[in-house]
Amino acid sequence: MLVLVCYDVNTETSAGRRRLRRVAKVCESTGQRVQKSVFECQVDVAQFETLERRLLAEINPDQDCLRLYRMPQTRGFEVLEHGSFKAVDFDGPLVL
């Protein structure tokens, strides 16, 4: 499934800046950054649960916001891109 991860971490303190870096590293290990605090991740159910658990361990729920969108794999779903970013095709061939 395609998961969209969006977060907003309070960076007013050094602890908040550390949380921001840790949240970004978790997301980078699973998906691709499409905006500064938005990642697309292609995962199965077990990987989704692991990702969610890892992210929840990093944020401070009293100061930060984390949103996970599970995108439906139904016909007609599409992403419209505008600008210079070109996403990786998760279903395309892997070229090394």
Task: Provide a compact summary of the structure.
With 96 residues, the chain is α+β, with helices and mostly antiparallel strands. It has helices at 14-28, 45-58, and strands at 2-8, 32-35, 38-42, 65-71.
The assigned CATH architecture is 2-Layer Sandwich
Poorly predicted ranges: none
- Percent strand equals 15-25%
The total domain count is 1
Structural class: alpha+beta
On the 0 to 100 scale, the average pLDDT is: 87
Q: Fill in the CATH topology.
A: Alpha-Beta Plaits
Strand order of the largest sheet: 2-3-1-4
Shape field = globular
**Order of secondary-structure elements:** EHEEHE
Q: Sheet bearing the most strands, described? A: 4 strands, antiparallel
- Fraction of residues in H or I helices: 25-40%
Number of strands: 4
Cofactor: Mg(2+)
Organism: Ottowia beijingensis
Binding site for Mg(2+): 8
GO molecular function: hydrolase activity; metal ion binding; RNA endonuclease activity
Helix and strand arrangement:
Elements lengths: L1 E7 L5 H15 L3 E4 L2 E5 L2 H14 L6 E7 L25
Antiparallel strand pairs: 1-3, 1-4, 2-3
Helix pairs in contact: 1-2
What this model shows, in words?
This protein has helices at 14-28, 45-58, and strands at 2-8, 32-35, 38-42, 65-71. The model has no long low-confidence stretch (mean pLDDT 87). A 4-stranded antiparallel β-sheet has the order 2-3-1-4, covered by helices on one side. The chain is built from 2 helices and 4 strands. It is α+β, with helices and mostly antiparallel strands and 96 residues long.
